[in-house]
Amino acid sequence: MSYDYVICGGGTAGCIVARRLAENPNVTVCLIEAGPSDEGGCSSHNTVIAFIAPAENLDQWEQLGAHGWNSKATRKYYNKVFEKVNLHTVPPLNPLNQAFIDSCTAVNIPQIEMNSDAFINEFSNCCGYLQLNVTGLDRCSSSRSYLHPISSLPSNLTVLTNTTVTKLIIDQQTMIVTGVLTNTNENIKVKKECIVSSGAFDTPKLLLLSGIGPAQHLQKMNIRCILNLEGVGSNLMDHPECVIIWESNYPLPDQVIQRWEAALFFKTQTYSIKPDVMFHFGTEAYDIQNNLFGYPSEKQAFSITFNVNQAKSRGHVQLRSNNYLDPPQIDCQYFADEQKHDKTVMIAGLKLARKIVEQSPLQKWVKCELSPGVQIQSDEEIWNYCRKASTTLFHVAGTCKMGNVDNDNMAVVDSQLKVKGIQNLRIADTSVFPTMISVNPCITCMMIGEKCADMIRQDE
Ligand SMILES: Cc1cc2nc3c(=O)[nH]c(=O)nc-3n(C[C@H](O)[C@H](O)[C@H](O)COP(=O)(O)OP(=O)(O)OC[C@H]3O[C@@H](n4cnc5c(N)ncnc54)[C@H](O)[C@@H]3O)c2cc1C
């Protein structure tokens, strides 16, 4: 089997790259997805909260050497996403959501239309109803929006599910990817380009298994180093998140599309230039993590999750062994930043959540605080709780970051998303984020898929 373009990973970005490349009837495209049934990766099971990244986030990417990735230049690609993916603003029908918004405005946090120009360009303290990538009650995942129905796919696009790419085959003389090996023992030949879209954990894993990464680590794993690229697997970023949960006085309203429909952004620290904490408001008890530690829970409850939206700590992804069946070794290093920014924002986030809930619109819904409980008051007590109950918001990114590959030795891909030192290998997924964006990343990941496909087609 041989194809012009082979895409490793049919997830959020991968489906988009594949479908857009296949719009050219003169090329052949193969999308390889490890999952057994549906494609779309995390976009097929996430919470469908849809955000365009604030301008300052993307303008920072540009400043760091990602040319053509500033807010203005990327808008065209967000718009291409919105040709396929519907954004629906949550209507103000749920009285508990409205009580949250009213309580925010009671402490002078203005309500804003999320993803409006004012939101994107000013990005300051605000609250509001979320936009969701749904049509009616159906999620607009990458697979639904770009691939389905599979029976109508163009004949030049082959989709292989239940197939894991185990290694990229690279000709060391030319530094060209000539093919990919799969767990089904196939060698799928690459005629033009290979695009890795396996996500922020599995993209660095696949590169490392293929001999691209820090030489020392590869040597330790008994893998022949083809390209010593220090940045592969470094710079792991996320939005570390914690929760505060209240039992509700009243039954939970059922006017919902899903149970997370409102949000807040706030600058808690005087030294922060922009909002440093984000809240999601949930009309349910988000108690998965807290249950592990024995906190009480109730069915009739609501939650505020607070996350450090510009966390300073950085983790890494490495291999456990040279066997592709072994999951990668992930070390998130939450709260490890020397400045203690992440810890400080967490503590401030919990206090702000309580302050908002003390306002009369929400206060009347409160029967009691379930988690962490009102007895937790001092900064030390709050921190002990946050350290225990914090978890991932599943927004992992940055492990093959984009940047100026000529002067930043931790940059893995250039502005064209091309892996430094390999002629025909690109990466398109959240692993290329140079820095974290302050909002939920799925739509930005889709934008990366659109821009990647466009850059490849321009090179054709
Ligand atoms: C539970 C959850 C809730 C979330 N909620 C939101 C939200 O509401 N809003 C938001 O903006 N973001 C949300 N996110 C984050 C967002 O969905 C992700 O950041 C984004 O979808 C990641 O896209 P990706 O293309 O980088 O990776 P993925 O979508 O994970 O795609 C990677 C794909 O590659 C496949 N793969 C991996 N290795 C291989 C291999 N070796 N060979 C072949 N295939 C391979 C995987 O099976 C997967 O399908 C959420 C994430 C999770 C997990």
UniProtKB/TrEMBL annotation:
This protein's record includes keyword Flavoprotein: yes
Any one Pfam family match given in the protein's UniProt record, by short name: GMC_oxred_N
Domain of life where this protein originates: Eukaryota
Organism encoding this protein: Didymodactylos carnosus
Keyword annotations of the record: FAD, Flavoprotein
InterPro entries hit by this protein: FAD/NAD-bd_sf, GMC_OxRdtase, GMC_OxRdtase_N, GMC_OxRtase_C
Occurrences of domain Glucose-methanol-choline oxidoreductase N-terminal (ranges): 199-213
Protein name listed in UniProt: Glucose-methanol-choline oxidoreductase N-terminal domain-containing protein
